[in-house]
Specification:
Elements: E1 10-13, E2 22-24, E3 31-34, E4 41-44, H1 63-78, H2 86-93, H3 95-105, H4 113-125
Antiparallel strand pairs: 1-4, 2-3
Helix pairs in contact: 1-2, 3-4
């Protein structure tokens, strides 16, 4: 699936999607219900171009889980199936910056606030931004 970033699509986002808000059928492992929608909103589709931060959507993904996801994503978009979506690949390469920006703008960084600031400002004004204060 190639994405059209000129479409200006907005998608419904659940900001607290974690294992405590999912009901799963134990016999089929299918999701049967999602609860806790009071903070849901629409956001640009590009905001979803982040590596999933499970089990905690507020925190960064552990390194080994990040590498598994990136490997699968790279295989799908740049692998032998003939698909190549440079927009998707470039957005995902900047996933941590996108995650940090989303957390800061949505005021949802929680205990990861300082980490999100460090990631975003490191990208925006360089890795030595602390020294410039």
């Amino acid at each position: 699936m190639l994405f059209d970033f000129e479409s200006r699509q907005f998608i419904l986002a659940h900001p607290d999607l974690n294992t405590t808000n999912l009901f799963i059928d134990p016999s089929t492992y299918e999701i049967t219900c999602i609860i806790d929608w009071e903070c849901a909103s629409t956001i640009p589709m590009e905001s979803f171009y982040v590596v999933p931060h499970l089990p905690d959507t507020r925190g960064p993904l552990e390194d080994h889980l990040r590498s598994v996801f990136l490997s699968a994503f790279d295989h799908y978009y740049a692998g032998g199936n003939g698909r190549r979506d440079s927009n998707a690949l470039s957005l995902l390469r900047n996933f941590e910056v996108i995650w940090a920006f989303n957390k800061l703008v949505q005021r949802d960084a929680g205990t990861y606030f300082h980490y999100a600031v460090q990631v975003f400002l490191g990208w925006k004004i360089g890795d030595n931004w602390v020294a410039s204060l």
